[in-house]
Amino acid sequence: MTSEGMTGADRTVFVNTAAASTGGTGTGVAPEAVDLTAPFGGGSLPNPVTTASGCAGYGRELAKFLPLAELGSITTKTIMLAPRSGRATPRMAETASGMLNGIGLQGSGIEYFVSHELPWLAERGARVLVSVAGERVEEFAACARALNGQPGVVGLELNLSCPNADNRGLVFAANPATAHDVVQAVREVADPALPVYAKLAPDVTSVTDVAKACVRAGADGLSMINTLPGVVIDTDTLRPRLAGTVGGLSGPAIRPVAVHCVYEVHAAMRAGECAAVPILGMGGIRTGLDALEFVLAGASGVAVGTAVFNDPTTPLRVLDELREALAARGFAKLTDAVGLAHHH
Amino acid sequence: MAHPVQRQAEILELAPVGAYHRLVLRAEGIAERVLPGHFAALAVDGADGSLLLRRPFFIHRADPAEATIEVVFAEAGRGTRALAQQRVGDVVDVVAPLGNAFAIPTGPASALMVAGGHGSVPLFGLAERITEQGGSVGFILGAPTADRLFGVEQARAFTPDVLVTTDDGSFGIRGQITLPLTEAMRAIEARVVYAAGPTGMLRAVAEVCAREGVRCFTAVEQTMACGVGVCMTCVLPVVGDDGVSRLVRSCVDGPCFDGSRVRFDDIGAVPPDLEGAAAMGER
């Protein structure tokens, strides 16, 4: 049984009492008056919405559906040092409220990105959060170095879910020490003005321990979460559906897992166990209210991923709906809602 | 590539044709952009349903005056089943036109259309274009069984040169589509062959064309998640203008490829000479 039938008619939307007591009138905030400025690293972005890595390419295709500059930022598909063919097909299987993908980080390499994709993005006024990865710590650092001084780049996101060639192919995000090494190496060579975000994997013993290690290593922000590993088996062919067998599960199906990770890490920051840095929340966001969940759990930015495949305009719609949802709850500022679910 | 438009499109007609469904949508601003070979990506489960991925369908007809487009689809899973259960007056979210459309010969040319099942869907608009510019067309339509043929009468309206094959012999010639292919190409002195249908069929047709020295264009069908070029799931190995093979997206770089460039034998594999294959390690 769900609560929809039992109590749906009586549901109350609580308004932000803090805003009301400091001169706000609760429900009186006009959507266009909501200050959406979103903390990002040590600075800020005009609004909290970005695309999740791997779900928006390098922007060209999405630009046909929405002006990229209206998003807080655009997060690129992960870029590695050398060109990669990616995995064989099939690379995808649809699942309940989500999908499994195993692309294998196909891409043309950092040089091509810097010479062909980045200038195009910069010309359109897009703020670019560049997702990079490597199979070795030095490869992450080399990508970061190649991005120093390039136009349009507002930050780096380290895809720590790449298999570590020096550690039996275990992903860097799998343990605090390897995650720490990557962040530290990148922070050492990256332009100090560029925030470095570590993107964390949910399938670890303690995401908070990995988060703490990344922040200690100098991460200016944390992206949570990457996909969850999964397998889908075709009951007609009696074989796994993906050529690579294991894929990453994404979409609304994983949202509570993602909100949990954000909630837990934000709680550690509030408790002083981890230095406070902004959290970029992602995992199954399809609506403004989905995004608000992440904000209330502790995220000051949100990324829209798989929902883009359903509707390429989703990131802008999520931004509009989030603005309205904040206004309806009496929030004059996005930052007033960040982590508010912890006040109870 | 086409510049796609996203619309909430009203269903004007939805009815079975043989083993398939014919769906007519009113979609302002789309029909006038459609060229033969373009496809449409339809959301199948509303704005909050659990099936997130769009289903891609070749566009059968586009009528700019009526602002309508028509697709034909087979029920092949939950998404297409849900679509088949929609009603006239319902609204579906459509993104179209997508893809690169067929290359069309300049001036009058003799073209052979080869289609497996409802692969024929994009070929009638193409036949119309070719005929309009003084060319002529022939058709070979094949399917496993008679009910899975699509457009035999429509093809006959264009030309008397229509051959039909079925695997079980329930209609026309018993056997696969490649059986009468060489003879048909020679009979109409085809300068170009357009093929659409299952991948195995496309591979066989491309092989015959290569042997006969005839240009061949293939409309491929690969599983897609987004249809607009961002998900990287619909890739297949294609030889580029520079001679280098890459995994390219069938949604934006295709779905209409020069058949001699598609490495049909390597679909579903990562051959070692592919750009970036070395970076994939031993896997």
Key terms for this structure?
heterodimer, A: 344 residues, alpha/beta, TIM Barrel, 8-stranded parallel sheet, 4-stranded antiparallel sheet, 10 helices, 16 strands, B: 283 residues, Elongation Factor Tu (Ef-tu), domain 3, Rossmann fold, 7-stranded mixed sheet, 6-stranded antiparallel β-barrel, 5 helices, 16% helix, globular
Short characterization:
Chain A has 10 helices and 16 strands.
Helix/strand structural class of chain A:
alpha/beta
Return the domain count of chain A: 1
The main β sheet of chain A shows up as: 8 strands, parallel
Q: What is the CATH superfamily of chain A?
A: Aldolase class I
Instruction: Count all strands of chain B and give the number.
Output: 15
The third-level CATH topology of chain A is TIM Barrel
Structure annotation, total helices of chain B: 5
Instruction: Kindly state the number of beta strands of chain A.
Output: 16
* SSE ordering of chain B: EEEEEHEEHEHEEHEHEEEE
- CATH architecture of the largest domain in chain B, by name, is 3-Layer(aba) Sandwich
- The sequence of SSEs of chain A as H and E is HHEEEEEEHEHEHEHEEEEEHEHEHH
What is the chains' assembly state?
Answer: heterodimer
Mean pLDDT of chain B: 96
Q: Approximately what portion of the residues of chain B adopt beta-strand conformation? A: 25-35%
Report the β-strand fraction of chain A as a percent range: 15-25%
